[in-house]
Amino acid sequence: MTIQRPRGTRDFLPEETWKRGRAKLAMQDVLERWGYQEVATPTFEHLELFTRKSGASVMEEIYSFKDKGGRDLALRPELTAPVMRMYVSELQNSPKPQRLCYYGNCFRYERPQKGRFREFWQLGAELIGGARPDSEAEVIALAERTIQSVGVGGDIHVGYLGLIRSILDRIEAEHRSAIMRMIDKKEHSALKEFLDIIGQEHLGLLELTDLKGKAALDKAAQIVSDLGSSASSPSAPMQSKIPEPSLAGRSSAREGRKVSSELNLEEFCQTVELLDAYGVKYTVDFEIVRGLEYYSGTVFEIYAEGLGAQRQICGGGTYELASLFGGKETSSTGFGLGFDRIMEIVQIEKTRRSPVYLVYTPDVKVEAARIAIKLREIVPIVLDVMGRGIGAQLKAAASAGAKFAVIVGRSELDSKKITLRDLSAGEQESLALEEIEMRLKAEFT
After folding, report:
1. pTM of the prediction?
2. Residue 128 · residue 96 · CB < 8 Å
3. pLDDT digits (tens, 9 = 90+) for 321-373
4. What are the structural domains, with CATH classification, of the chain?
């Protein structure tokens, strides 16, 4: 019986693997040019790392197990927590800010569907430390440039959790989780009805989440004023500490620990002003409420066309996780890209180089191997290992889409002239090995 791959996983054949590799290199090149250094973490971690960050409910969607020593471990469901764990262990005393990037496979036990797999890949970056508006604008601009490097455009929506937190703090705790779910699911009618029932429609939450762009920012300033908060606004740069709302019904290991968050609309305005300076096209959208249990400032998501309902390809924002993992409280901003979704719409300019086939007669096998080693310094070379004749080797080269074949026989070696055949044109000529090297180098570079 044939053994099938596990449900929710994929095999990547050579062409797709090459395409994924090219996309990864293009995006990593952008990250490197912005000063981000790549790091790598283990594929499995202590289970507590993820339950501490996301609460016990995360157990339902991760692969967890006990090792032979009885330790509770889990395959990583995402990469931010492992990177922050590594930062606390290895880099906490290094100069700030730390600019780190990463790429790796992650695992979630969920129902496989289009755009969702049980094994998937994530590429991302974390800017640990640094002033909030400056870090937020840099990370959002970096996320945009990263996807643009593979020919993908995105619709960027930017929100601010400080204001959402301040509104929720004025609503009974038992209602908060339901309100957040409706905002996240964009259930406007249900939200309006619910706010009417609990008598909280006057807080402006419904209108704030309905509006987008400049109108949303103006409404935010009005709400800050209406709430009677001492928080800053564009016209009055003041600050007010807002306690973290404890969302009823959402299990979180952050319970009892305050998020370092300020209702500071002036900072958010500085962030969007810097985004303008970076040339980033964005939409202010307070409906973005991702990860309220640990995000503490600006949050953003990027949506792409051509993906159907699963349009989101990137998400991120400002958070504080270092102290949760035993380190000093440190504000960080980062993003994670859904690499698999991006690969569905990626545009790679360069095509894969077809190899050159080195075709030879059996009596010059040793000499052919030496020539292959030398030519591989310039181009990909395929050497026959099937013991086939010249005709069969040339047929294999044509079937593989090779443009050139280098033909070596005893007579070629004796005359110090090797045949270079252009398979697409059906032409060939005899050249010295050095001349063939020059021709192939010019053709493939």
Report:
1. 0.85
2. yes
3. 999 999 999 999 999 999 999 999 998 877 778 899 999 999 999 999 999 99
4. 14-343 (3.30.930.10), 356-444 (3.40.50.800)
